[in-house]
Recover the amino acids of this structure.
């Protein structure tokens, strides 16, 4: 049992950032995880912080995120603020020995994420968990079980498709890689159990209506240490909706995630299923499972079964190489 939390008491969680992801984590903790209580909220937008605090049963709001982290009423912290703040807030939590669930990415670069790995190592404790939610998505878990069991022989190729409906005009390939592709890089590592040894990345502008610098479709090829290959399409202005698939091609077939559809709708001239508009709808089951596993790990003082600081670092280390490749047009090799 963690030193801060007694067996009978709920884990007292502070949430930093109440945008889409932060609010979803706060509400999941409040509504679906009985062993946790949201006791503290911070957001630069104080009106938004007040709203989420009220939705979570009257949590305290803080004017400063570091004051929230160090407050004695907070046992553990969820960081879901903008990407550029993740490293600083996670380091602040480590300085105060507070367990932290940091949304991806763990930093804006491999160097940022490595600072966290080293700071955590200096505490002598495992305090950092990373929000790669696909590790708790039932569809991704089902695919990985077959890959690990080698039910269809050895894995050969990981094929990821990651589509968002729309993003701001002028998005750069570097932003797509740092903010979005980390999920797919982590999923490839996690499903195959291998590390990335080479990357080749290209990017294009999908819509002529966007500004010339826009690169909203990124195509990533990976070479991995177990002689597997991976191809990942990250298309962040796909227009039709939010859709993610992961397929692993094996010696004797392939296994691919299904969409968590609930109904097939027949209407005049057509039959079809709903396509979610964003990740909050698509991965809700995964977010709840991830947060439940994190709360349980912190309360019992056991290892979080999802992504930890090393995984957050590996994702950013590979992302650094992807950025170098998309800029140079060349294959980038990673030191083993
Ligand atoms: C967002 O932060 C996520 O984590 C989503 O899963 C991803 O699809 C989206 O591109 C990111 O911006």
């Amino acid at each position: 049992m963690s030193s801060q939390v007694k067996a009978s008491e709920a884990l007292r969680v502070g949430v930093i950032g109440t945008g889409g992801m932060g609010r979803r984590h706060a509400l999941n903790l409040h509504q679906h995880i009985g062993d946790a209580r949201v006791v503290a909220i911070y957001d630069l937008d104080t009106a938004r912080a007040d709203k989420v605090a009220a939705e979570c049963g009257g949590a305290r709001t803080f004017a400063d995120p570091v004051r929230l982290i160090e407050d004695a009423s907070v046992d553990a912290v969820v960081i879901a603020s903008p990407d550029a703040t993740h490293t600083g807030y996670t380091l602040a939590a480590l300085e105060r020995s507070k367990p932290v669930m940091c949304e991806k990415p763990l930093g804006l670069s491999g160097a940022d994420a490595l600072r966290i790995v080293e700071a955590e190592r200096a505490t002598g404790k495992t305090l950092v968990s990373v929000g790669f939610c696909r590790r708790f998505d039932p569809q991704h878990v089902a695919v990985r079980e077959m890959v690990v069991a080698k039910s269809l022989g050895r894995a050969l190729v990981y094929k990821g498709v990651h589509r968002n409906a729309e993003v701001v005009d002028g998005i750069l390939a570097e932003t797509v890689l740092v903010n979005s592709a980390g999920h797919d890089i982590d999923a490839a590592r996690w499903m195959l159990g291998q590390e990335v040894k080479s990357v080749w990345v290209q990017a294009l502008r999908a819509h002529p209506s966007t500004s010339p610098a826009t690169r909203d479709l990124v195509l990533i090829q990976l070479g991995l240490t177990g002689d597997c290959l991976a191809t990942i399409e990250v298309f962040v202005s796909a227009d039709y909706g939010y859709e993610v698939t992961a397929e692993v091609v094996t010696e004797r077939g392939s296994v691919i995630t299904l969409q968590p559809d609930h109904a097939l709708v027949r209407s005049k001239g057509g039959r079809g299923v709903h396509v979610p508009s964003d990740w909050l709808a698509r991965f809700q089951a995964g977010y709840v499972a991830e947060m439940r596993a994190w709360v349980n790990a912190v309360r019992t003082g056991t290892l979080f079964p999802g992504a930890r600081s090393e995984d957050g670092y590996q994702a950013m280390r590979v992302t650094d190489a992807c950025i170098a490749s998309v800029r140079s047009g060349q294959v980038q090799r990673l030191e083993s």
Q: What stands out?
A: The chain is about 40% helix and 25% strand. The two ends are 36 Å apart (CA to CA). The pocket of ISE is lined by residues 164, 179-180, 183, 236, 279 (CB under 6 Å).
